[in-house]
Amino acid sequence: MPISLEQNEQKNEMRITPKIIIMLLLLGAAVIVAALMVKGKSDDGEIPIVSQQPLSPELSMNDVAEEVPAPPPPARLAVRQENVDAVWGQGDEESVEVYVDTQGTSVSVVEVVLTYDPEALEIMAVEDANSVLPFAVLTGKEALTNKGEIHLVRGISRSVEDGVMGFSGEGRIVSMKIKAKNAGSVRITVDQTRTRFVPSGVSESFAFSGIEDAAFTVK
Question: 20 to 30 A Cα–Cα from 199, which one of 18, 45, 97, 180?
Answer without folding.
Answer: 97
